[in-house]
UniProtKB/TrEMBL annotation:
UniProt entry tagged with the keyword rRNA-binding: no
Protein name per Swiss-Prot or TrEMBL: Phosphogluconate dehydratase
Protein species of origin: Ramlibacter pallidus
InterPro entries found in the cross-reference section: 6-phosphgluc_deHydtase (IPR004786), Dihydro-acid_dehy_C (IPR042096), DiOHA_6PGluconate_deHydtase_CS (IPR020558), ILV_EDD_C (IPR056740), ILV_EDD_N (IPR000581), IlvD/EDD_N (IPR037237)
Keywords: 4Fe-4S, Carbohydrate metabolism, Gluconate utilization, Iron, Iron-sulfur, Lyase, Metal-binding
Pathway: Carbohydrate metabolism; Entner-Doudoroff pathway
MF terms (GO), sorted A to Z: phosphogluconate dehydratase activity
Reactions that this protein is recorded to catalyse: 6-phospho-D-gluconate = 2-dehydro-3-deoxy-6-phospho-D-gluconate + H2O
Cofactor: [4Fe-4S] cluster
Free-text remark on how the cofactor is bound: Binds 1 [4Fe-4S] cluster.
E.C. code: 4.2.1.12
Sequence ranges assigned to domain Dihydroxy-acid/6-phosphogluconate dehydratase N-terminal in this UniProt record: 68-381
Length: 609
């Protein structure tokens, strides 16, 4: 299939821009790959320490027989429903490795926080930077440097990007990502959102709200809406870093364990075949473009306009929001999954899931097919779905073509998409550069023009809502929420009150230098505004009553203020008390250096560049 000219042009632009950093990166990983294996290269005391805890048979294998040794990086904890199943995975992996004449060790555990727990609390100000902590913790584990391959165990919001950034700094290792799958469907996402809006209006109390939330989030597995965690899984499939079709198999299914074992077989297959397919080679400019296309085609999380910029940079590749925007003009929207529709990820999987979307994009020339993956069959393998070869519980797997859409209200072919363009847009103007998830917003709300109401915190907006001060057409501006100000928390708690205002018929929008959740919904929101207010960005110049126009059609975000008046204005300063409050409590003081050193959102909000 001939490549779509837009995909071809965007990829060429990325390749040209990245040439110096990418070539330097590849030289580093090739030098690392050319060394003797760790157990042969290190001193005897180093080797003894590395394998002291292994059973004797494993010690003999890895030292005397020079068997492959897999490093496991695990983000298990049981605070996260999605990560609770990962507690049993190392045992499964070690057992399978032994069957194949290899060994496996848990190289490190990495932290994993639940954004669902910390939403709207001070703890959320640690969330974005936890990605870089995870990357560093991954590096600490792999720095023992005795591994021939690696398995990355993780699913949720910051965890997969953090694992991926860390793994790319060991780009010479064959690396497979191992997910756990979504929880079975509970209370529907639409019903959950309805109760949240009722609670925001005071129509139901805490007991009713807690009952609804507990029915929605009820057991082990990933949350079932198509937020950042499930977008991660879609992108891992599109990048060829999973065992094909692994993303949305529930942890309660027998197939889940066999797919985890297949991840071991896949990693060792690369090592034993001496096929040079380390993660640093797989993740090239074509792979990154494929991930971007998959994100756009599914209306995925806006958080990835930050995370995948950082991921690309870890592989020596430079992308920006213009690349996303140009691709969005060519990539059709092929799925509707909550918050872009009523279906959850289990319904998405049943309708065709990642395999369907990837096949449609490949056949339309909107994904590169000539890419490396962790499988010899290439990215076409990811258009197939796994099942038992001989029946449930029996050894062996088979993959079959995903076939036609089984529900065209959830997934559609590229020739009959939900929308001719992708779900994300770049906005720019005198308020800076930002992004909007238009796929979740009703078409009659893609353009909003109204007087601004300025807030310095999300709590202030919620108080104004409860006092009835926002019952009008209004653009709510929440500033001092960027990486340098307070770590760029998600502002998902603002969705219910703004949705209530929109439901009353008011024309409302949100403008912020903070983030929204991957579950950001039907209210138009210009987010990630850069440069942020704390860095002297133009949001700091806005005043109450200034007319702001958010235009998701034209791609603009502007304060309708006389240009001479705008130029005369100096930026407001962040309140000293607020700045101090943002710096302490729940460990925030430990992240002060990260806030000082963070790059802008469009540069990935990185603390390590």
């Amino acid at each position: 299939m001939k490549l779509h000219p837009v995909l071809e042009a965007v990829t060429a632009r990325i390749r040209e821009r990245s040439a110096p950093t990418r070539s330097a990166y590849l030289a580093r990983i090739e030098a690392a790959a050319s060394r003797d294996r760790g157990a042969d290269r290190m001193g005897c005391a180093n080797v003894a320490h590395a394998f002291a805890a292994l059973p004797d048979n494993d010690k003999f294998r890895v030292v005397a027989e020079r068997a492959p040794n897999i490093g496991i990086v695990n983000s298990y904890n049981d605070m996260l429903s999605a990560h609770a199943p990962l507690g049993s995975f190392p045992h499964i992996i070690k057992d399978e490795a032994r069957k194949l004449g290899a060994t496996a060790q848990v190289a490190s555990g990495v932290p994993a926080m639940c954004d669902g727990v910390t939403q709207g609390t001070a703890g959320m100000e640690l969330s974005l930077f936890s990605r870089d902590v995870i990357a560093m913790a991954t590096a600490v584990g792999l720095s023992h440097d005795v591994f021939d391959a690696a398995l990355m165990l993780g699913i949720c919001d910051k965890i997969v990007p953090g694992l991926l950034i860390g793994a790319l700094h060991f780009g010479h290792l064959p690396t497979v990502f191992v997910p756990g799958g979504p929880m079975p469907s509970g209370l529907s996402n639409n019903e959950k959102a309805k109760v949240r809006e009722q609670a925001a209006q005071g129509l139901v109390g805490r007991a009713e709200l807690l009952e609804a939330e507990s029915k929605a989030y009820h057991t082990q597995g990933t949350c079932t809406f198509y937020g950042t965690a499930n977008s991660n899984q879609m992108l891992m499939e599109a990048m060829g870093l999973h065992v094909p079709g692994t993303a949305f198999i529930q942890p309660q299914q027998q197939l889940r364990e066999e797919l985890t074992r297949e991840a071991v077989r896949t990693a060792l297959g690369i090592v034993k075949a001496r096929r040079f397919a380390p993660i640093g080679r797989i993740v090239d400019e074509r792979c990154i473009a494929n991930a971007m296309a998959a994100l756009l085609a599914t209306g995925g999380s806006t958080n990835h306009l930050i995370h995948w910029v950082a991921v690309a940079r870890a592989a020596g590749i430079v992308i920006d929001w213009d690349d996303f925007d140009r691709l969005s003009g060519a990539v059709p929207l092929l799925s509707r999954v909550y918050p872009n529709g009523s279906a959850d990820v289990n319904a998405f999987q049943e309708a065709g899931g990642p395999g369907y979307v990837i096949r449609e994009l490949l056949d339309a020339g909107l994904m590169h097919e000539d890419v490396l993956t962790v499988r010899e069959g290439g990215i076409r393998e990811y258009t197939r779905v796994p099942d038992w070869a001989e029946g449930p519980g029996k050894a062996g797997l088979k993959w079959t073509d995903v076939g036609a859409s089984r529900d065209d209200t959830v997934v559609r072919p590229a020739r009959e998409p939900f929308s001719a363009t992708g779900g994300l847009r770049l906005l720019q103007g005198n308020l800076g550069r930002s992004v909007i998830k238009v796929s979740a917003v009703p078409e009659d709300r893609h353009v909003i023009e109204a007087p601004a109401r300025i807030f310095d915190s999300q709590e202030a907006l919620q108080s104004a809502f409860k006092a009835g001060e926002l019952d009008r057409d209004v653009v709510c501006v929440v500033r001092w929420q960027g990486p340098q100000a307070n770590g760029m928390p998600e502002l998902h708690k603002l969705t219910p009150p703004l949705a209530v205002l929109q439901g009353k018929g008011f024309r409302v929008a949100l403008v912020t230098d903070g983030r929204m959740s991957g579950a950001s919904g039907k209210v138009p929101a210009a987010i990630h505004v850069s440069p942020e207010a704390a860095a002297g960005g133009p949001l700091a110049k806005l005043r109450d009553g200034d007319v702001v126009r958010l235009d998701g059609v034209a791609g603009t975000l502007e304060a309708r203020v006389d240009p001479q008046e705008w130029d005369r204005r100096g930026p407001a300063k962040m309140d000293a008390r607020q700045a101090q409050d943002n710096g302490f409590g729940v460990g925030r003081e430990l992240f002060a250096g990260m806030r000082r050193n963070a790059t802008a959102a469009e540069e990935g909000a990185c603390t390590w560049l």
